[in-house]
Each structure stands twice: as C-alpha cells, then as structure tokens.
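Tip: read the tokens left to right.
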C-alpha cells in the first residue's frame, strides 16, 4: 500500500449489498491491520490524531465483508454491513446533501 506523506490513505466504506457509499475516512497502517484482523472498520482520526474504532461509542459498527485496493494502491474500498447509520449526524450515509442545496464551494483562501 502507498500511504501519503502523513502515513495515511483514504478508505471508502460502501454498503456491500446496495453499493451505496456510506463514508470516507482515513487509515494509517495500524488501522488497516486492525480492520483486516478484526473484521470491523478502524480509522485514523486526523483531528484527534488517534486510532478510531468505528461504532465503539455509537454501536454503529461497520462489519467488513471485503477490502479492495485501487489500481494505484493508494486507496481502499471497504465493502461493509453497517450496524446502523454511518454518519455522525445520524444519517445512513455521510453523503446526504447535494451541492447547491445551500452549500457552496469555498477555496482555502476564503476560509
């Protein structure tokens, strides 16, 4: 696997049955290894700078059925069975808002 300069790679969680994209998070090597060994999704929190077991506090675990690697070996796709909403807002997926529904594109220099 090709991790970025911070030791991370994007991980997309997708519902194994419906194909719906549930969320995008990041993994370091330890998170990837824990995901493979436990069968549940582990990520690396960039804001808290610590390992994060998805569902540990909410009960909304992502049970991993298969892990696929993209052609460049710098992104993983987790095919999962979600035990509840994937999004911290309570929505099934993190991708529940459409650009244009009160959302606008903001460049870094506008933040």
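Filled-in amino acids:
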């Amino acid at each position: 696997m090709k991790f970025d300069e911070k030791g991370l790679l994007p991980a997309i969680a997708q519902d194994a049955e419906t194909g719906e994209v549930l969320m995008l998070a990041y993994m370091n090597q330890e998170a990837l290894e824990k995901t493979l060994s436990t069968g549940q999704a582990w990520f690396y929190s960039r804001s808290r700078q610590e390992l994060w077991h998805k569902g540990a506090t909410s009960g909304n675990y992502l049970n991993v059925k298969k892990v696929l690697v993209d052609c460049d070996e710098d992104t993983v796709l987790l095919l999962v069975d979600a035990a509840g909403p994937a999004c911290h807002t309570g929505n099934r997926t993190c991708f529940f808002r459409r650009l244009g529904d009160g959302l606008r594109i903001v460049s870094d220099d506008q933040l």
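The mean pLDDT is 92. The chain is about 10% helix and 35% strand.
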